[in-house]
Write a structure and sequence with these properties.
13 helices, mainly alpha
């Protein structure tokens, strides 16, 4: 009887979740409708739990990079001709988009607003190899003082790209139950430690990913 009730609920939910997405959870649950629905809720709760480590990484990364850009190009680095020339067309478009958004909400055009409005993709993009001579060459340790000495810009870029890709999956509400979630969590916390070990130690006791992993249906 319970399975019949859950089957009925799945049919009612199918139009607003999609047959494909419901199918993902049914397959993962061995076509047990009750477990499929519990997995769906669990997936959402785990995604919610990842918000703290991921946003901690994103905020720390953008502030580390902005501080470095201020040192190189001045307080208003985002409108510096030298920076815009070094950044190239794609990054300049990111800044234009951010400026339009700031203007549309009537906020002041200052560095704090720009930093907060630019996407994770902008900051991740600035770690690419092409920016090594003008932005990172000989300056990586100054910009990221807690980065282990054996780690390179390429290591940092790879870690940031991994977190950014996983972030996009979580933020777009994709099923993540097949991912190695403990590995993703460990990668986020390792990167946060590279950015600021004090922040990593501060937020770690509040991160619920390991707890929820043990509660997987």
């Amino acid at each position: 009887m319970a399975d019949e009730v859950q089957d009925s609920l799945i049919e009612r939910l199918r139009p607003v979740i999609s047959a494909e997405r419901i199918g993902t959870y049914l397959l993962a649950a061995g076509f047990d409708p009750d477990r499929a629905l519990r997995l769906y809720i669990w997936n959402a709760l785990v995604g919610e739990a990842f918000h703290l480590p991921i946003q901690s990484v994103e905020v720390a990364l953008r502030n580390r990079i902005s501080t470095h850009l201020v040192a190189l190009f001045g307080q208003d680095w985002w409108k510096s001709p030298a920076f815009l020339n070094a950044a190239g067309v794609e990054r300049a478009r990111d800044i234009e988009t951010a400026l339009r958004r700031i203007k549309s909400r009537g906020a002041s055009l200052d560095t704090g607003q720009v930093v907060a409005t630019l996407s994770f993709g902008f900051w991740a993009g600035l770690l690419r190899k092409r920016y090594n001579p003008t932005i990172w060459g000989g300056r990586l340790q100054a910009a990221f003082p807690h980065l282990p000495p054996e780690r390179t810009r390429a290591d940092l870029e790879r870690h940031v790209k991994r977190i950014a890709d996983f972030r996009n999956r979580v933020w777009h509400h994709e099923p993540i139950l097949k991912a190695d979630l403990l590995a993703e969590y460990a990668a986020a916390m390792e990167l946060l430690g590279w950015l600021c070990p004090y922040k990593a130690a501060w937020v770690k006791p509040h991160c619920r990913v390991p707890v929820l992993m043990r509660q997987k249906p």
